[in-house]
Amino acid sequence: MIFYLVLVLGIGAYDIICLKKKQIKKDVVIYISLMALATVLGIVYFLQTDEKSLAGYILNLINIEW
Amino acid sequence: MLAKKGKISTRQAALLFYVMTLSPEIRLFPQNTVKMAGKAGWLAPVVAIAPTLLLVVLVNSFFKKNQNANLADIYNIALGKVVGKIVVSLYLIWILILTSLYIRYYAERLLSSILPHTSLVFIILIMLLLVFFAVRNGLVPLARVNELFFGMLIVSAILLYILALPDIEYRNIMNVCTSDAWPVIKASSSIIPIWGYFLFIFFLGDRINDKENIKKFGFKILLVKFIITIMMLIVTIGSLSATAISNIALPFFAMVKDIEILDTFERMESIIFSIWVITDFITITVFSFIAVSMLKSIFKLKEGKFLASPILLIIGIGSLFFFKDIFELEAFSNYIGLPINALLTVIIPITVFIIGKLREKI
User: Fold this and answer.
1) Looking at the partner chain, which of B303, B328, B330 has a beta carbon nearest the beta carbon of A53?
2) Which residues pair with B261 in a beta bridge?
3) pLDDT tens figures, B192-208
4) In chain B, what are the domains?
């Protein structure tokens, strides 16, 4: 998880600096939101204790056995 | 001149479509068609080609009035801004899931064949890094390298088919009768959603030139795809038989494994392996481009290439988060993936076209 967080922060910081140089505020906001989503997904994945995956839940939901 | 503008030609877009659909074709078509139509499964592309040609005509009609737009813009024009953006967002979510699925398939295949003791995360990370650099470098270099891949893939496909010809037992593919018609039509339902990726390519429409040639190059590439696919099914069903195929995980791979030249040269599956890695790379990169382009259209952004990193991180973590193992992947692609693909590549575009025509926007 630490590697993932360092990766996200490293890429994020570099990209935001580049975007700020170009002075595109809207792009920065969308970029930060997406990075936040990626971070949350990553943290949830690394901390999850449940064995089942999202696809497994969906397949069970529609009663498909595999 | 095209490269200067950062745009690719319609011919290059058609070639991208050809290469990106190869991986799911090798994986899904032999088993799915045989499960539904038995030994007549090789006839399924004959049925599937007609709706796909109509899809090409439909895509061509979308761009008649709006040559410089992409498909997301056209959906916005036809359905109105709000509904259009909602529909494009649904496409975006599906493209992200689909890309996660392809990355996971690629990693699982490497794990189960040549790299059994490697970490899954490491294999995914390497592919994501490659895709990241490809997306950052733009569509033109990818389209150019894909032209090379296309030539290589056609040559190796023809070579493999010729080498597999002596193994074909004609009783495995002959004796097809009229009662096979309905199963063959049903079997085509697993081909159309994959060939429907032709529509997805045009979400990059604003980066594709000479769109007046969509019909011309679309028909040509579909003809090549039709011949190559039907040959793949004939050699696979012909050499392994329908009964064996329904019990093998990767029938085309198993068929290639049996090829021998003069009892000396064997292990031809390495060719298939390299083809698979190449096509997976192209599929994942093109889908990442499409996701970036959709996001740009939805939020009206100026710079798209910066979105590559968050999108690839979401796709990478999604591939681990969304699927547990290969069985889940297969069940998900067969029972959920194919129907949703059919909805997004056939039903929704037709609906959008009808609404656009009624509103006199297309």
Assistant:
1) B328
2) B265
3) 999 999 999 999 999 99
4) 10-358 (1.10.4160.10)
